Fold these 3 entries.
Entry 1:
Amino acid sequence: MAGSDTLTALDCHDIRFPTSDRLDGSDAMNPDPDYSAAYVVLRTTGGPQGHGLCFTIGRGNEVMAAAIRSLAPHLTGRPAPATAADLAALHHDLTHDSQLRWLGPEKGVMQMAAGAVVNAAWDLAARRAGLPVWQFLATLTPEELVSLVDFRYLSDALTPGEALALLRAAEPGRAERTARLKAEGYPAYTTSPGWLGYDDRTLVRLAREAVAAGFGQIKLKVGANLDDDRRRLRLARDAVGPGVRIAVDANQRWDVAESVRWMTALAPYAPYWIEEPTSPDDVLGHAAVRSGQPVKVATGEHIANRVVFKQLLQAGAVDFVQIDAARVAGVNENLAILLLAAKYGVPVCPHAGGVGLCELVQHLAMFDYVAVSGTREDRVIEYVDHLHDHFSDPVVIERGRYRAPAAPGFSARMKPASLTAYRFPDGPVWRARRTQPDRPDAQEVTA
Amino acid sequence: MAGSDTLTALDCHDIRFPTSDRLDGSDAMNPDPDYSAAYVVLRTTGGPQGHGLCFTIGRGNEVMAAAIRSLAPHLTGRPAPATAADLAALHHDLTHDSQLRWLGPEKGVMQMAAGAVVNAAWDLAARRAGLPVWQFLATLTPEELVSLVDFRYLSDALTPGEALALLRAAEPGRAERTARLKAEGYPAYTTSPGWLGYDDRTLVRLAREAVAAGFGQIKLKVGANLDDDRRRLRLARDAVGPGVRIAVDANQRWDVAESVRWMTALAPYAPYWIEEPTSPDDVLGHAAVRSGQPVKVATGEHIANRVVFKQLLQAGAVDFVQIDAARVAGVNENLAILLLAAKYGVPVCPHAGGVGLCELVQHLAMFDYVAVSGTREDRVIEYVDHLHDHFSDPVVIERGRYRAPAAPGFSARMKPASLTAYRFPDGPVWRARRTQPDRPDAQEVTA
């Protein structure tokens, strides 16, 4: 009875991991994150469910959950086959609800909520098609792909006709690139050595391990103290040798002049890019940073929507576009961003890490290779090696590359046991922590 | 025992008015708003409470309430006198919570939530001082005012030293301008005639009434249909005569090229400004619209933070800066924006209307006149004439001007009876509507 399959409910779970215990994920702006997910399940009467998530770093995950639940009236009662067949309609309904739009528009909590739900619907649609999302996308015609994009506010930079031409130009090589991707995977880089809370010994050990594991690029967090950054960069360079790229990431710590000064000082250590030097809203600021010092500029994980990415490209403000699977309004908006980047010839190097972000974003980078940009040149997907064990179809990294997912869907389904154990505030992990007040962060995380 | 006065709780009320019944507030992007407020009360053990609010247009008001409640741990237990004496510290704690910041950063739901709480704290502080907020601000020294501003990401456009110089230059005239403000009020314009859902007869009648009431400027909503816009502009011009300014407002309806085309077509009717021609995130787009057609450009009610305002000014993208009291992170962030506008010599014409926005923003414009820009030239505060009766100290408009508030606080305290009656979803007004399913919007508003 697939024809009568209907979306009956949108469930949202507040899932948090106590990662601040070990300073995993620590950087200049985020000293003690508890990696979390507002986790969405689109329940159906018959066919596959859709799962998605939005990543947060702890407090406020309940706000994301409220935002996701506010979208439920757009989902419940919707026929699953028609929803899967017209994901542009769902994306439009979620991002253009005239009352909810006031809370953005198209940014922050509501945009991330729309993204989690849109991605859950893509998971559902890909499972109905029996394909992983990257491959499901790559089966769509250029016309179908263009119809998925909301071109509102983009036409001064990219028209539907230009997008169609880009996609058609990439069409002939799809089959060959799909085969290469399955055989070779997609290049990754790793941030695991570089968290700001790690001591020098840990940094050096993890940097060596990264090279031994086959990574051609690592990333260090910077921005708290210039002398520390110099020392850590030197240690990392000594550990990895001259042939491995070392990117650095300031997590929005600086103003424009400070970015220029700091990166001029770090330039002798040959950092590959400086990521998030300043506010993600500051298009003109990024342009000034890019022209003011010699290191390439990357940003994107906190860029709110396609309109800001458009301007970063128009202004020549970035050397790398770092899409995030769960920050903008899902696959549809990321498709717009991939097309914008292709139009401007800027490589896309996705942000990942967190909870489930590697699992999700690998699909977008692989689709980009097969059907949009047509190349992996100068492109790498971020990789961080924690929390993958909570997913039933986790990413697989081999010799510094992501293996192309083969299972149907979006790879971001959490194991039922993890959903139970880490439920906040009443799952067993959090209940146990409240009874151990001597743990250093027990007060913090239960506040 | 004022010395022991402590903040004991942050209450948040979900208040909604069924304004969609009459198409009050209707425009090209918001066809049927139900004007709403996530209303904050900072409760104390002894001294005055602090009240604040965030305006929404209906659905999603519960998400705002969740966001406001997520800030409660920063408030409860805080000494009221110390909080009132260091509002920069509170503003910083709310906008730089390292985990909550991920949900923005500094934009959308979380930024509006911070704004509601910050403004409630300003209400509390001004009441402790026995002054209306505008006058309380105008008693602060230039050094104290500069210390209230978060200059992060601003230094390429405005340094603390430049801000101090601006404020010192305006200091000598404060007493004289305060006296003039009390005697003369502050110029207003009215949007009441121009909602898109009103028929021509209503438009003409209300336009004539506005002129008769002393307004020197009105505003019409545009952007749904060019022929309609032409006809409505002509009717309005005939009704008000050549000496009254008619601004138009597209509420983000257009892309860049469409903005230019549409406003070129409307230019013969001499609109005073075009407001929100396109996405509020599109700095470069606004610059292109401003240079591409002859009508002056205004925006701001949906600008997420000081960083985007900074760029609009750096890029020469706007002729008028339209601050909103409840969109950014409260008085502190609006103080940054007023200083930026003063530095660039761009007039501030605040957005208002909604629920309580007139009550709040009048204080900021009046403070700007007394202590920042020092002028009312080319400046007007928006005025819309509904929902004021729910406030205990509502705005007073006389001969097209806002009268300077005299009562202590921020003027945005709702009457207890209104808080009870319009509570969503369980207040008597909403309960009654659910039992009258033949009302056209009953389904909609209870969805």
Note: The radius of gyration of chain A is 21 Å.
Entry 2:
Amino acid sequence: MLGPGKAELLARIRDTGSISAAGRQMGMSYKRAWMLVEEMNRAFRAPVVTSTRGGAGGGGAEVTEAGEAVLRLYRAVVERAAEAAAVELAELEAMLRPAGAAGA
Amino acid sequence: MLGPGKAELLARIRDTGSISAAGRQMGMSYKRAWMLVEEMNRAFRAPVVTSTRGGAGGGGAEVTEAGEAVLRLYRAVVERAAEAAAVELAELEAMLRPAGAAGA
């Protein structure tokens, strides 16, 4: 339903008021950003983003109240999970090759 | 580095002694299963799976001690995270459309 990519997109839509601007900030095509928004809107009972196309300002997008709640809950999940599993995550990370060496 | 798919593949390799059998159980092509194993072996300092191709038994695969540790830690992370974020996860789930209704 939601992972780090979609959550970041949602936060950036809230900050920019634009799906395409939010996607662009993440190096995403306009089409992909829209697709992800549509996936989220389908997944949740209430839409997380509403948008208007065209118009004086060239259209815009808004994160709904439900979208704000989803974002808040998602961040709480990530934060609590990271705290609770900090020891095991650190052990796992210590087993990883240092970043950048993976392709060696 | 590791998500539910790779962790499950690792567990099934341990259970079956075969990368292709493990992948098949998950509806994965032989090529994809090998690719995922190679990604894991590159990501970690020590290989998580060792394999022999051909031979009397048609080759086989074994999860290494490092692989066992990775699997154990991954499961602990998931378990602790789910416990710690149970309330927020339940709230998020309640906001989702019932399964199967997403395509409606």
Note: The longest strand of chain A covers residues 49-53.
Entry 3:
Amino acid sequence: MSELATTLGRNIREKRKKNGFSQDAFALAAGIDRSYIGRVERGEVNITVEKLYEIAAVLQCEPTSLLPAQNTL
Amino acid sequence: MSELATTLGRNIREKRKKNGFSQDAFALAAGIDRSYIGRVERGEVNITVEKLYEIAAVLQCEPTSLLPAQNTL
């Protein structure tokens, strides 16, 4: 489990909660399996850039806003 | 082949050339197969966020600087 995946997952979880999505509602809106979202948020998955954009679209934010700066890792 | 992968690949190629790397030298520095780099640059691969950070580290730039804005896709 990498620091990058962990931080990215935490950022996604925070943004999801801020937007008032449960994991279930978010999974439904994103068309992604609920257990997969859980694994992403726990940093257990290395998601693709494509998936990052899909998640950011549902969260109505820029994909880059979810990514940690290189020098913080 | 998605618009995202195509644009990301083009950005990586431009940055690689600006930094004076041949594809061979870049592949060596990044520890990535040369044919894989070619496929990334042509937008034929959906790379992971992890791989994006590795590529950006070799190119000495922020990973986010290689990503297109959501609304340009």
Note: Helices of chain B lie at 3-18, 23-30, 34-41, 49-58.
